[in-house]
Amino acid sequence: MKLFGSYTSPFVRHCRIVLAQHQHNYEFVPTDYTQSAQQTPTKRVPYFSHDGLELHDSSSILRYLRSLAGEGFCEDPATFDLYCTINTALDATVNIFILSMDNLTAEQVPYLARQQDRVSAILDDLNSREWGQVDEKNDAHLRLACFLSWAQFRNRIDIQNWPNLQQFLAGMNQQAWFANTHPALS
Fold first, then answer.
1. Is the pLDDT assigned to residue 183 strictly greater than 90?
2. b/e for 40-74, b at 16 or more Cβ within 10 A?
3. At residue 7, does pLDDT exceed 90?
4. Nearest Cα residue to 20 out of 184, 157, 178
């Protein structure tokens, strides 16, 4: 097994967590924008190879890893919808972050303002939920934790605005398997 990616990517982090949960022996191959543009049709990380199988998206990688362990991936519609909703916020936040490196802001670009509104609306919705106990096998919860942690690391959101999400992330950060994969530790 080979996982290609960066230690700071929330998508890659989610895959690394699931690989560690199942104690898979794998090689992590640090990969930058230039390499991913040349080595995968999606031109992004993560991508993955195992026994001739090539996967190009974190969701397909996660589904494959869960299936190897005899587990399901977002098995019921509500969990899958939650996972997709979180992915929407994460993708929008990543786009805003990447474009900010080119000095483009929501004040200048109406598209980015809509993306920021989308992120805020999703975070408001997620904050209105009760999160309960940490569930390390729930990929929607893991995706949310990876998103929130990355967004704070990159100064994309102020989690103080969403106290339930702040509490959720604090609970996840108490788990060694999550805290040990923080992007700042790379």
1. no
2. beeebbbbbebeeeebbebbebbbbbbeeeeeebb
3. yes
4. 178
For residue range 49-89, what is the model confidence (pLDDT) as tens digits?
999 999 999 999 999 999 999 999 999 999 999 999 999 99
d(CA 15, CA 160): 27
Longest dimension (CA), the chain: 48
Please check whether residue 93 is in contact with residue 70, taking contact to mean a CB–CB distance below 8 angstroms: no
Burial class (CB in 10 A: 0-12, 13-18, 19+), 24: middle
pTM (two decimals): 0.96
Give the Cα separation of 108 and 139 in Å (integer). 35
User: Residue 87 corresponds to which amino acid?
Assistant: N
Residue type, 66: R
Taking only Cα atoms into account, the Rg of the chain, rounded to an integer number of angstroms, comes to 16
CA-nearest of 37, 28, 21, 24 to 5 is 28
- Whole-number Cα distances in Å, 48 to 25, 85, 97, 130: 13, 24, 24, 34
